[in-house]
Design goal:
Elements lengths: L51 H18 L2 H8 L3 H8 L6 H10 L3
Helix pairs in contact: 1-4, 2-3
Length: about 110
Amino acid sequence: MPSTKRESSSSPNDPSTPSPKPKKIKSSPSSSTTPKKEKTSGSRGEFGKLTDAMRAELLDEVIAHGAKSVNLEEIAQRFGVKKSQLIDQLKPNRTNIRSKAVKAIASGA
């Protein structure tokens, strides 16, 4: 029987065919310096600083949206209180932990 050589026909999806490795790019010593940041005038314009009233309103919004998105049952169990007690502490326009936090921020504390 004559011996015939078979050429290996490997397809591009063949896992035994190694994929070509990406070449590393060598950086030159002159490119190692970092670019300097341009200096600005320092003016922030009208969006520069939150006032205490703005911070209080922001905190109130965060508490409102956060209370809707968390699992209050799980938190109540963790602290050993009823879910209704936790809900009462997060309701707006009441003397509770929410109002105390908002007042503290509004007063600049």
